[in-house]
Structures are given as C-alpha cells and as structure tokens.
Amino acid sequence: MVPFFLFSQYSIILIILLVILIVLVLYENWKTKQEKTSDDGLPQPPMPFKLPLLGHLHLMGGHEVPYQAFTEIGRKYGNVVRLQLGNVKCVVVNDQKNIREALVTKGHHFDSRPNFERYEQLFSGNKQNSLAFCDWSDVQRTRREMLRAYTFPRALTNKFYNLDFIIQEGVCQMVSEINTEKAISLKPIILRQCANIFTKHFCTKQFSSTNEKFLKMIGDFDDIFYEVNQGYAADFLPFLMPLHRRNLKRISNLTHNIRTFVLQDIIQDRYETFNLEDSPNDYVECLIKHVKTEAEFDWETALFALEDIIGGHSAVGNFLMKLFGFLVRESEVQRKIQEEIEGVVGAEGRNVGIGDRNRMPYIEATIFEAIRLIASPIVPRVANQDSSIDGFKIEKDSVLFLNNYDLSMSDKLWESPEKFMPERFIKNGHVIKPDHFLPFGGGRRSCMGYKMVQLISFGIIGGLLQHFTLVPSINESYNVPIGSLALPKDTFKFNFVRRERVFSNN
User: Fold this and answer.
1) 3-state secondary structure of 91
2) What is the distance between the alpha carbons of residues 256 and 60, in angstroms, rounded to a whole number?
3) N or C end of the chain, less CB within 10 A?
4) Cα-based distances in Å from 474 to 254, 259, 494
5) Burial class of residue 402 in the structure, from the number of CB atoms within 10 Å of its CB (0-12 exposed, 13-18 middle, 19+ buried)
6) Counting beta carbons within 10 angstroms of the beta carbon of residue 446, is it exposed (0 to 12), middle (13 to 18) or buried (19 or more)?
7) Residue 493: in which H helix or E strand, if any?
8) Mean pLDDT throughout 446-459?
9) What are phi and psi of 75, to 5 degrees?
10) How many CB atoms lie within 10 A of CB 38?
C-alpha cells in the first residue's frame, strides 16, 4: 500500500503541474488576443482557443477529412482563420472569392509549398526535385513550359491524334482482358493501361501487360501515391517522425526501384545517343536536349521531373476507380452515357475517341461530378512574403489550406450536393463549369496534369461503357472515400455485362 503522505505528495505535484498547464494555456490564448492588429495596421485573422503543443490539432478529430473541420471552423470564426497545427502556423481560407484571391490575384505571394519532412525524403532529401511539392522558381517555370505541349495537346495536332490512338489502343486491350463471367478487380487492369498510355505518350515506350518489371513499377508508384495522400500528425509534430522511419525507408526503396526501371527500361542509351541537331520526338528527348544545351538544371533534376510525370498515371487510375465506384450504383447515368455514345458514334461503327468530347457533354459532366464529390484538396500553399487575404494579415511562411471541399459540397452552391448528378454541369446541351468549381486550383501553381485526367478518363469511360454495363458485385461495398484520390491496392470488384450492340470492329 502506498503511504498516505506519498499519495499526498503526488497529488500536490499533479495539481501544480495542472495549474502550470492551465496558466500556459490561458497565457498563450491571452497573447493571441493581444495580436488582433499587425504592425502594418491589418487585422490578424481570428484564432480559436488553442492547446499547448497540439495547438488546434484536436479540432481535426471526428471528421472523415480535415477539410470538413475547416468548414465548421469557418462557419464559427469566419472565412479566414488562423490555426496553429502543432508547430506549423496555418491559415484556413474559405469562400470562393478568398480562395481565388490566394490562387490568382495574389498567387505570386502564395506559390511555395510546405516543408514537410516526408515530402523532402520522397525526393532524395530535397522537395525542389518534385514538380508538385517544390517552391516556385525559374526552374519550375521552365519545367511547366516544357510539359505544356504534352499535358495540354491541342486539338487537330499530331500530339492530340497520337494520344487519341494510344488511348483507344489501351481501351481495346482492356476490353479484351475483362472477364464477364465473374466479378473482377478492375484496378490492376486500369493502372496497367494508364501506365502504358503515359509511357507511350511521354516516352515512346510501351510494355507488355506481363512484363514483371513494368508491373512492379506500377505497384511501386501506386504505393507512393497512396503514401503522399495520407495525412500524419508527424507532419505537424516532427518529434513523432521517428515512428514513421520504417515506412519512410520502405518508400525510399520504392523510389530507387522506379529510378532503376526508368534508366534501364525507358531511357536506356538515349541520353548518350540523342543527336542535338534533331528535334525532340517526345518528352524524354525534350529533357535530354534541354540538359545538354542549357545550364538551367541537370540530368538528375530532369529524371525527377520525368518520374513525376510517369507517376501521374496513378492519379488517373485511382480517380477512374472512384468514378466507376460511383457509376456502378448509378444505372441511369450509365444508360444516359450509352445513349450519348450511340447517338454520336453508333452509325459510324467506330470506337469512342477523345475527339468526340465536344459532342458528348454528358460524359464530360460525369467526370466533373465525380471530381466534385471526391473533393480532393488543393495542394497547400505557403506565403513567400507578408501579404493579406480578405483584408486580413497573412504572415510569411504561413501554410494556407484552401478549402475547396466546402466549395464542392456546400448546399448553398449546389442542389442536393450529396447526390451524383452530372446534369448540374450541363446547360443547353453544353458543359458548364461554375466559378465556384475549382478542383485543379488556379494560377501558376494549378495542376499540370488536369487535361490528361480529363482526356484519358473520357476515353476509358466512353470506351468501356460502349462495350459493357457495370453491375454491383454481391457483398461488395461501394463506399467511395472523399478528400483524396488514393485508394488501397485491393479495392472494388465489379461485374461487367457485355452489351449486345457495340460499335467496334474488334
């Protein structure tokens, strides 16, 4: 039995510690209230009551995704709110006007990215190697400009026609692989074809669906894509990072495997043999020529850019899986897509191509509706200087969370926002994109691959529904996660029913 006097001593110590903790909490929040106005006269954004060490991390609990918490915080404190998440000073920005101010009007004030250690380690200890997670720079501007011709192929150009052919070829391969006699795991099939579309379009390389090294690359990229889409408390409380060392080491090994595949199976001897007098035939040769003729960045930086782009197939493939997760429960939407296909290509007896987009608004609207419901967040921005949003002071190095979840799911902006209704994006037979629909960000840090997402998704959705109807598999739950594009490897099985009338010569 513990002596009574020891119990009393322990109690006194605990009481003293509790009093100190309460005093610290009260002092920190008193100090915050005294900072209502900055030195330049701009008001500081409001800040909720915070806790020592955690700051406002406790407010993120109880929500499917953090952006739902940001919506609640915005309703209580206003459209621009200061948060302290662990040791990271943050600002949550709600409302279309304020988000556009951050993305476009003052985009040059908020074009940096967070310094999360996880992202640093994913790119050999330097986030500047990444296309998505780097800060803005002249090198980043050049990398984006070099990509534009490939990620935004103009209609009626050779690159556009070539991409159309590659996508149709991939769809035909998918159609031949789909087994209609049992429920199938669609994700491996989709990822294989998306990967081949990317490698052929950007690298002029195509791989067999049985190539083990190619399949391993796809799996490694999918693992990494899932990882970067997870949120960890350690991103805001770095002292927790040692708990993730083993996983980070595993991810680092995956990146090394991918680099080996890229060098041995995609680049091969092209860096040494490319003739600088020739015009580049693909993105790989664009990078080679730039590295050899300009001093702006080296071959290592170019390889990271290439790997980032090839890895984009994971984003497209995971998005398509979520889209099919919606469609399998929406038989009427499938029927309308199939009617649209028949009305455009049925009489011609050919497959759907990306050149049909302007005549198939319902498929385009379906893609937009899936993007809206998924509500994948805009990559956080970081203030590169003292600035303001909606008249509130934004301090340099503040991490901005732009709450497009609220823009996508607000009942003030959308009728029945929880329902899957592609019709909301169609007016007078044409696709419309409301001003409050900002899934790909905006300004000079907007998503570089969003047009590829739209084009490939259109080709695959149109191609598969031209040949099949999706039917739910017995005992399969189609609960599509929101707030991220990533899905686990083993996800969603579907039954495919072959349509009696298809318009292909295959």
Assistant:
1) strand
2) 34
3) N
4) 35, 40, 9
5) buried
6) middle
7) strand 493-498
8) 95
9) -65, -30
10) 15
User: How would you label 62-74 residue by residue, b for 16+ Cβ within 10 Å and e otherwise?
Assistant: eeebbbbbbbebb
Give the pLDDT mean for 72-78: 95
Enter the tokens of residue 162: 């070539």
Taking the CA atoms of 343, 189, 420 and 155 in sequence, report the sign of the dihedral they define: negative
Tell me which DSSP letter residue 24 carries. Answer: H
Mean pLDDT of 487-501: 90
**Rounded CA gap, 402 and 101, in Å?**
11
CA-based end-to-end distance of the chain: 84
Helix residue ranges, H only, 178-328: 186-203, 212-228, 245-261, 270-273, 283-293, 299-310, 312-327
Whether the CB-CB separation of 223 and 254 falls below 8 Å is answered with yes
Summarize pLDDT for 404-436 with one digit per residue, the tens.
Answer: 999 999 999 999 999 999 999 999 999 999 999
How long is the chain?
506
Q: Say what the pLDDT of residue 32 is.
A: 55
Residue with tokens 């908020």: 110
Contact indicator for 88, 236 with CB cutoff of 8 Å: yes
Q: Following CA atoms 364, 367, 373, 375 in sequence, which dihedral angle do they give, to the nearest 10 degrees? A: -110
Sign of CA dihedral 473, 476, 482, 487: negative
Instruction: Read off the amino acid at residue 166.
Output: I
Strand runs labelled E in 80-181: 80-85, 88-93
d(CA 384, CA 369): 34
Torsion of CA 231, 236, 239, 242, to 10 degrees: 20
| Contact between 395 and 383 (Cβ < 8 Å) | yes
* Beta bridge partner(s), residue 85: 55, 88
Integer Cα distance of 148 and 141 in angstroms = 11
- 342-374 residue pLDDT tens: 999 987 889 999 999 999 999 999 999 999 999
Pair 81, 73: CB distance under 8 Å: yes
Q: Enter the tokens of residue 498.
A: 């072959």
Q: What angle separates helix 186-203 from helix 158-177, to the nearest 10 degrees?
A: 150
3-state secondary structure labels for all residues of 54-86:
CECHHHHCCCCCHHHHHHHHHHHHCCEEEEEEC
Q: How confident is the model at residue 5 (pLDDT cuts 50, 70, 90)?
A: very low
What pLDDT score was predicted for residue 6?
A: 38
Examine the pLDDT at 506 and tell me if it is beyond 70. Answer: no
Q: What is the mean pLDDT of residues 93-119?
A: 94
Binning pLDDT at 50, 70 and 90, where does residue 232 land? confident
Annotated binding site for heme: 447
Determine the Cα–Cα distance for residues 375 and 440; give it in Å rounded to an integer: 10
Would you state the structure tokens that stand for residue 11, as one six-digit string?
């109690």
Pick from 255, 303, 309, 384: nearest CA to 132: 309
